[in-house]
Amino acid sequence: MAMKLQVRGYELPGLIDRIPDGVTTLSLDCWDTLVWRNTHAPRDVMADLGIAGGLEPRFWAETACRQIVKNAEGRDEIVMPDIYGRMLPNAAPDRIDALIEAELQAEERHVWAFAPTIDLMRAAKARGLSIILVSDMYLTEHQLRRLVAHAAGDDVLALVDRVFVSSAYGTHKAGTLFDIVLDELGLRPDQMFHIGDNPRADYAPAIKRGIHAAHLVQFDKQAEQRLRLESAAATMVDPTMRVSRPILQPHRAAIAMRQETDPAYSLGHDVFGPSLHAFALWLRQEIDEMAARTGKRVKPLFLMRDGFLPWKIFDATFPDYGAQPIETSRFVSMRAGIHDDASIDTYVHEWLNRIPPEAVARNLLLFENEHKAFTKLVKGVDPRPAFVKAIRNPALRKKILTRTHKFADKLIAHLARAGVEHGDAVMMIDVGYNGTVQNILTPMLTSRMGLTIAGRYLFMREEQLTGYDKRGMVDIRNYDFRLVQALGTCVAVAEQLCNVAQGSTIDYQADGTPIREKADIKGQQNATRDAVQAGALAFAHAANQSLGQRAPAASDTVDARTRMAAAAMTRLFFMPTGEEAKLFESFDQDVNLGTNQMLKFVDRTHAETGLRRRGLSYINETSRMYIPGELQSFGLPLNLSLFAASRFALDIRNSDFEVGGVDIPVIMTSADGQLVMPFTARPTADGWYRIAVPIGAGKFTPAIQLGAIAEWVQIEDASWHRVSDFDDNGLPKGAPATTITEGMGEMDDDLYRCTPDAFLLAPAPAIKEPLVLTVIFRPVKWRGTAAREQATLAA
User: Contact at 8 Å (CB) between 436 and 331?
Assistant: First the structure.
C-alpha cells in the first residue's frame, strides 16, 4: 500500500527516515519543490521580457498552443518554440530563438533552490537512493538542467540521475508521465517515492499508481492567503506590476520555514518582519549615502516608542552600525524645541486648534496661575484669541524661553547618553509619516549642538515641505502622493505593533534619564504586541541567514525587498484577514499630545452601527483608527471599495451609494390637516433601510406607515437632524427621537409585529429650524409580494 503524507518544507530533511524500506528511487518535482522563483507566480517572470502589452500576450499564446497541439497532434504538452511561434507568427527563427533565450535568462534572475530539498537529496544519496526529477514544463531537459544548475549549483545537479520533462513525452504527470517513468526505469510503483507541491499533478497521480508520495505544502492557509492578497495589493500600489515589472516576494523562503502557528506571531513573522527587515536594508543604504556625502560617521537614532521594533530589527541585521534608541516623544520635543520667539508662535499657531488651550499652556511650561486667566473656558467665548494675545507678552515669553532652554538641556543630556556629541551627523529614524519630531528639534539641535540631522521613515508624507533632509522608504519619490496619503490613514497599525510597552516620555532628569508617564496598556495588548515582535525578529534572523535558500535569487535586491514591503503593509492596512482584525480588538491608541486621550483601535460594533445607519457611504464618512479592521468581518468588497477610493482619491459621494429603495407612505400632520406622501427608504446594509423625512421647522408631525410594507419589522434608531448638518460627504449628528407606535406590537428587543395600517409617529421637537427625521429599520417579513418585489428590483 502506497505511503501518503503531507509535509511542510522544514520537515523535508527528516523525511528520509520515513521513506519505506524497498524504495530505491527518490522522485522530485522541480518547480516549487527544488527550484523556487522569487516571484509570486510563474507568470511574473514574463514581465521582464519587455513584451508589448505586458505578460498577457505570452500567456494567450501558451493557452492557444495547448489547444492547438491537443487537437492537431494529440499532445498534452508543448515546447517554447510553439509558444513564441504562436505569439509572433511572422517572426524569423532567430527572433524566436532570441526570445526563448531572454525568457531563460529572466528565469535565471529569479530562481533559487530550496535548501531543505537539497538536504533531503544529500540524505537520499547517502542512503544509496537514485534521484530523478519529474517536471511538467514546456522546457527541454537541457534547459531545465541549466536552470537547476543555476539555482542550486552543479554539485546539486550532479546528484540527479535522470530528468523527465513532460514536453519531451507529450504528456504530463496527471496523464501518463509517471507510467513512462516507471517503465523506463524498470521500477515497480512501490520502489519509488515522489514529492511535489501540486496535489493534482504530483500527489494524486502518484498515489493512484501505488507510488509512495508526499505532498509538499509550501505555506499554511493563512500565509498563502496573505501572499496572494499581497500580490493583489502590489498591483494597486504600482500599476506597472505584471506589465513591465514582476511581483517579487523574496520573503517566501522564510515564510515557508515558519513552524509557529500563533496568529500574532505569524503576523509579525510574515508581514512586519519582512517589511521592517526591508526597512533595515534600505536604512543601511541611506546611512552609507549620508556618510559619504557628509564625510562623517552617521549615528542612527531610533525614536521611541514607535521606533522600538525597527531598532531591534536593524540592530539584529547590522550590529556594527551602533544604532541607539532615544526617547523623544512629540510632547517633550515640543517643549525642547521652543528656543526663540518664532518657535513660540509656530507652536501656538500649530497646536492651539488641535488640543485644549490648557494643554498648549502646559506644554509651554506655564504654571496654572500663569495661564488660567487666558485659558479659562467661558460659555460662548472662544479662548483662543485671548490666548494668542496673552502669549505675546514679553515677560511671559521670557519665562517660557528660560524654562524651555533648561528643558532642552535635559534632552541634550539624553542624546549624550546615546553617544551623540557636538558636531555629529545623526539620522532620526521612525515609522513616520510627517517627521514631526525632526521638524521641531532640528532648529534647536542645529543651533545648540551643531548637528547634521537627517530623518528616515518607513512612510513619509510631509504636511509641510520643510526642506529638511527627509526621506521615506515609501514616499513620493517612488510612489504617487495618493498612495502615500492613503497609507497615512492607517499608519497607526504600524505604530501600534512597532512600539514598546512603556509610558510616553514626559520629562528627563538632569542627566538625561527619561521620566515616563505610567503605561496604562492592557495586558492582552502587550501580549499580542510581544508575540508580533517576536515573530518579526525571528523573520529578520531567518532572512539574515537566507534560511531555506541555497542562495538568494539575483532579483532579491534591496529595491525588491522594499517594494515587497510596501505591498505587504498595504495589504495589512486595507485587506486584513479575520485573524489579524481580531488581534487589534483589544488595542487602545495613546494620542500622545500632552493629554490622556485613548482611542479604541478596532470597534466592530461602531462599524456595524455605521453600516446599518448609513450603508456603504459609511466608509467615506467615518474617521477611525483602523477602518479596514472594523470592516473586515463584513466582507472583502467593503474593504476593496475603501482601498480603491483611498488609493486613487476617487470623488465618490453619498448619493452615489443610494441605489434602489422601497416607497413607504408617510402621514404628514400639521395644524392645517393631514396629507399622505410617499418617501423612499434606501437600503443600507444586511437588509436594513434608512428613511429620511423632512418636516420643516416643526411644521409637520410625521407618521411612517411601516405596516404597509412589513408584517414584522425591527427598529434600529430614530433620530432628528438639522437640515443644515447634511452635506454631500458629512455624517449629520442627530438627537434621539421620541416615538409613538400604533398597531405595532413589540415582541422582543426592537422587534415589532405590524398590522397593515401600523405606523411609527415622532412628535417634532421645539426647535425653530428645518429638521429631518431618520429611521433605521429592517423588514423581517415583508407584507405580501409587492413591497418585497419592489425592494428586490431596486436592489
Answer: no
**What is the side-by-side strand order in the sheet with 25-28?**
4-8, 212-217, 192-196, 25-28, 130-135, 162-165
Give me the phi and psi of 790, to 5 degrees please. -60, -45
> Which one is the CATH code of 4-220: 3.40.309.10, 3.40.50.1000, 3.90.180.10, 3.40.1000.70?
3.40.50.1000
Q: How far is CA 491 from the centre of its chain?
A: 10
pLDDT at 594 over 50: no
Joined grid coordinates for residue 598: 485613548
CA–CA dist 511, 65 (Å, integer): 75
Q: What is the SS3 assignment for 287?
A: helix
CB atoms within 10 A of CB 59: 15
**Cell of residue 681, nine digits:** 427608504
Burial class (CB in 10 A: 0-12, 13-18, 19+), 223: buried
Grid cell in block for residue 737: 427621537
- The overall average pLDDT reported for the chain is 88
Threshold 0.85, pTM exceeds: yes
Domains 4-220 and 658-794 in one fold: no
Q: Which amino acid is at 566?
A: A
Q: Is the peptide bond before 305 cis (omega within 30 degrees of 0)?
A: yes
Q: Tell me the CA end-to-end span of the chain in Å, nearest whole number.
A: 56
Cα–Cα distance, 588 to 586 (Å, whole number): 7
pLDDT tens, position by position, 231-261: 999 999 998 999 889 999 999 999 999 999 9
CA atoms of 254 and 568, how far apart (whole Å): 15
CATH topology of domain 658-794: Immunoglobulin-like (2.60.40)
Considering only CA atoms, give the Rg of the chain. 33
**Residue 271 DSSP SS3:** helix
Give the closest residue to 737 by CA, choosing from 687, 710, 777, 707.
Answer: 777
Rounded Cα distance between 250 and 330, Å, is 35
Checking if the pLDDT of 790 tops 80, the result is: no
Contact 430, 302 (CB under 8 A): yes
Measured in degrees and rounded to the nearest 5, phi and psi for residue 166 equal: -60, -30
Segment 549-567, tens digit of pLDDT: 999 999 999 999 999 999 9
Domain boundaries, the chain: 4-220, 602-656, 658-794
The span from the CA of 144 to the CA of 408, in Å, is 65
